[in-house]
Amino acid sequence: MDKKIKKVLVANRSVPAVRVIQTCKDRKIPTTAVYSTPDRLAAHVFMATDAVHIGEAPPVESYLNMEKIIAAARKSGANAIHPGWGFLSENAKFAQMVQDSDLIWIGPSPEVIHKMGDKIESKKIAKEAKVPTIPGINSPKTAEEIRTWMQEEDVALPIIIKASSGGGGKGMVRVTHDSELENALAQARSEAKKSFGNDEILVEKFIEKGRHIEVQIIADQHGNVIHLFERECTLQRRNQKIIEEAPSPSIDDDIRQSICETAVQLMRTIGYSSAGTVEFLLDAATGKFYFLEVNTRLQVEHGITELITGVDIVSLMLDIAQGDPLGFLQEDIRPNRWALEVRLNAEDPATFSPSFGNISRLHLNLYPGTRVSQGVYEGSEIPPYYDSLIMLLMTSGPDRETAIMKMESILCRNLRVEGVKTLAPMLLSIIRHHNFIRGDFSTRFIEEHMDELVSMFPEGDSEEDVLKIAKYIAEISALGTPNWI
């Protein structure tokens, strides 16, 4: 098979598809977009060189339909497939299908995806590689089995039940009282079966003041493995990240060196290639970190690592897929900025309920030190079938204070989205909160401060303002111009 990438089919939509297409355009590599019926006018469709319709709205008929995506690649003449993030990006079967079709898979090997896609299996591999892991029990069948483990290992509540095949916060239930255990076990199994087709679960001690620290890894097919340092991904809602920053304000240089070297050691052990991320949970009370999982794909928040290192991670993924060796060494990576990212989702900021409809107005005024990955445009329709992420907003500066200041300016003055609700007011409340500014937060920050954060929302509603103006114009039209004008 010719390993030179001639044309890339992007097996995704919205923000991830746009991000991959951007790098391909920079490198003058033609692209093919795929789209479902409601996405026929989506931003990624217009950006690509050409586009192929792959089915109706439900993901199983379109973005999760492996045969249709492979057929679209053949039809368009693409010889490589990039999965972005989400959908089929961590599906070992799809990666194998791509390779069996004599197409270039832009990602790690199907074998590695399969091994690291199961939380139980990946935890065993991490233990064998001498990577610290959270105390836990694999595949318990009953609540009594969990209670016995807690007693034997001296593990106190709270604990967390996780889907073994899980991701994105689905199939995760925290247990704070013994009486909740039976129902929590049933709930986690049910969510796991519904989301991943597998109801196997594992249980772990819940770290009360946990901080999510992840290390970005780049590895080629020649045994070269380096890290691009770490990101802080602690601020989450419903176990899904909404604000990330690099570097992490939670760790000192000693922990930074240790956690990054541990990630490299693990990825070298499993024979990783392409871009990938090792996630750790840091216990703020003890300073100890524990392995969580390996994300065998491009992460949503990769952009802030690109901002602080000057490296294009998507471009490196293309090089590695072609068999090219890395063109730099670990000592060549020298971060010199601080970067912050917020995920702008089309959701009600007070409830996190999805908000669907037409974006009637979109205004975004950017300036130096800012970056946007935009999956929509003014007039875009936000369909109810997919992830609610519409835009990634990133800022950078010489220090954390500057990055936060620039982000506040964007969210407060330089961004207007009308027609759908977004998380902008919530994001603004978080970055203005004194605990966030001090770097004092955990994975439960939003949960613990929800009422306070909502109370900090800016006064007024842009849609109400528009209605007031419309009403005033209507009155002038009906009554004539007032004599005071």
Automatic annotation (TrEMBL):
A Pfam match: CPSase_L_D2
Cross-referenced SMART domains: Biotin_carb_C
Keyword Transcription annotated: no
GO MF: ATP binding; ligase activity; metal ion binding
InterPro entries named in the record: ATP-grasp, BC-like_N, Biotin_carboxylase_complex, Biotin_carboxylation_dom, Biotin_COase_C, CPAse_ATP-bd, PreATP-grasp_dom_sf, Rudment_hybrid_motif
Entry keywords, A to Z: ATP-binding, Biotin, Ligase, Nucleotide-binding
Keyword Ligase annotated: yes
Domain of life where this protein originates: Bacteria
Domain Biotin carboxylation: 4-451
Listed Gene3D superfamilies: ATP-grasp fold, B domain (3.30.470.20)
Residue ranges of every copy of the ATP-grasp domain listed in the record: 123-322
Name of the protein this chain belongs to: Carbamoyl-phosphate synthase L chain, ATP-binding protein
Organism, scientific name: Chlorobium phaeobacteroides (strain DSM 266 / SMG 266 / 2430)
